[in-house]
Design brief:
CATH class of the largest domain: Alpha Beta
Number of strands: 20
Shape: globular
Family: Belongs to the glycosyltransferase 1 family. Bacterial/plant glycogen synthase subfamily.
Number of domains: 2
CATH topology of the largest domain: Rossmann fold
Strand content: 15-25%
Helix content: 25-40%
EC number: 2.4.1.21
Largest sheet: 9 strands, mixed
Keywords: Glycogen biosynthesis, Glycosyltransferase, Transferase
Mean pLDDT: 94
Structural class: alpha/beta
Protein name: Glycogen synthase
Distance between the termini: 10 Å
Function: Synthesizes alpha-1,4-glucan chains using ADP-glucose.
Length: 465
């Protein structure tokens, strides 16, 4: 069985968020059981000197334009990745946006990518194409049309990002108008890439069991809950995982000091190093950290409403965030008034590892969270998660249960609930013996993709049986 795994970003080649981590870790686990290769765009900011030019090449024709596709390859941790290079797709300096907002030509860019996925799948004679999020979703329709012997799996990482574009793009892509229906790819008179993935894939997965349930509701369905209900028999929730080799506090060279579940005291050398970096005295105050994007989804409205009350407590809060919007100005203004709030803008992989290792607690007040990786990484590094109980957070963090993934969970996205959760965390932190037990227990939990990979293998086998 041969699989082609397609994503718009794959670590370590390009990353804006958790999709890149998943698109590396899952194929790595799957490679222990099946023949799998990956494919992603070759963006302009990537270093081509680290890649090898492939002997394969082909052309994609969309509308009146022929796009010559040049392929490059690289091997990371035993998995080969193909990189699609063509000017319209590869000229981007950023993956999805520029300083002025989303690229106006996102649709032809990723339309080209989808068409290239189909042609590459045929060239490689794969059995299954595993598509991820809207950037790849149109490939499901084209595979169904031109290569029905190839089966497709489509994974929804975040339903809120749907790939919606003007209906005029139907002609550009050469898509028959018979597909432009409520049962097909039409969404409020727009072309919906994500609906193509849902409608025309053989199996649809989400990145946690809880999220698979939630998207069937009006609250979390992003306008697609009724449409999803019509496909519910082929929708499954499979929890994400992390790469335990990449996120390993015993070997992580980014840390000031390595540590393990049997040597937790060395973890605090990382906390002391961070406090020194922040020009603070060594302190026993609980350190809360956040590693996030400045997005409504991540609960920043709730955080900003609550943050002054949080900062009046005996704690330190360090937030590493990526993005530019009004939340940034609000946080900067608050940080000027509170000496126990520290902001780090722009994502940095090594710094994020050091934050997880330094933190006593991870704060994650997401309004919704399809899965979330930060809580699993945090537990791996001995930071206890404080989370809103939704989506994958509810599947991976448990309070008052000796069940892998112990933490603090609040059920309602309100200021009172968040403040109460912080208070429960502080109470736990004051109980040194129990705090160390929870840290050690979480660090021994298996948050790898190995179990989830077997679930994907089960579905793959059903498709090719």
């Amino acid at each position: 069985m041969k699989i082609l795994f397609a994503a718009s970003e794959i670590f370590p080649f390009a990353k804006t968020g958790g999709l890149a981590d998943v698109a590396q870790a899952l194929p790595h686990s799957l490679s222990k059981h099946v023949d799998i290769v990956c494919v992603m765009p070759l963006y302009d900011f990537m270093d081509k000197s680290l890649l090898q030019k492939s002997e394969l090449s082909f052309s994609v024709i969309l509308g009146d334009i022929t796009h010559l596709i040049t392929l490059y390859t690289s091997n990371y941790k035993g998995v080969t990745t193909y990189f699609i290079q063509t000017p319209m797709l590869s000229d981007s300096q950023e993956l999805y946006s520029s300083s002025s907002g989303s690229y106006a030509n996102n649709n032809p860019n990723f339309g080209i990518f989808c068409a290239a996925i189909v042609l590459l799948a045929k060239e490689l004679h794969v059995d299954i194409v595993h598509l991820n999020d809207w950037h790849t979703a149109l490939a499901a329709l084209w595979i169904k049309e031109s290569a029905p012997q190839i089966k497709t799996v489509f994974t929804i990482h975040n339903l809120a990002y749907q790939g919606l574009f003007d209906a005029s793009m139907l002609k550009y892509f050469g898509i028959d108008t018979k597909y432009f229906t409520m049962q097909g790819i039409e969404f409020h008179n727009q072309l919906s890439f994500i609906k193509a993935g849902i409608a025309y894939s053989d199996i649809v997965t989400t990145v946690s069991p809880q999220y698979a349930k939630e998207i069937m509701s009006e609250r979390f369905g992003c306008g697609l809950h009724t449409f999803l209900h019509t496909h519910k028999e082929k929708i499954f929730g499979i929890i994400n995982g992390i790469d335990l080799e990449l996120f390993n506090p015993q070997t992580d060279t980014a840390l000031r000091a390595t540590f393990s579940s049997t040597n937790i005291n060395s973890k605090y050398l990382n906390k002391n190093a961070l406090l020194k970096e922040l020009s603070l005295e060594i302190s026993q105050k609980p350190l809360f950290v956040m590693v996030s994007r400045l997005a409504e989804q991540k609960g920043f409205d709730l955080l900003i409403d609550s943050i002054e009350q949080i900062l009046k407590k005996n704690l330190i809060l360090v937030i590493q965030v990526d993005g530019e919007n009004s939340y940034k100005q609000k946080l900067v203004s608050i940080a000027k008034r509170f000496k126990n709030l520290f902001l780090q803008f722009g994502y940095n992989e090594d710094k994020s590892h050091r934050l997880y290792a330094a933190g006593d607690f991870l704060l994650m007040p997401s309004l919704y969270e399809p899965c979330g990786l930060s809580q699993m990484i945090a537990m791996r590094y001995g930071a206890v998660p404080v989370v809103h109980g939704v989506g994958g957070l509810l599947d991976t963090v448990h309070e008052n249960q000796q069940k892998c993934g112990e933490g603090i969970v609040f059920s309602h996205p309100t200021e009172d609930a968040l403040l109460d959760a912080v208070d429960r965390a502080l109470k736990l932190g004051n109980n040194t013996k129990e705090m160390k037990r929870v840290i050690g227990f979480n660090m021994e939990c298996d948050f790898s993709f190995d179990k989830s990979a077997l679930s994907y293998i089960h579905h793959y086998k059903e498709l090719v049986a």
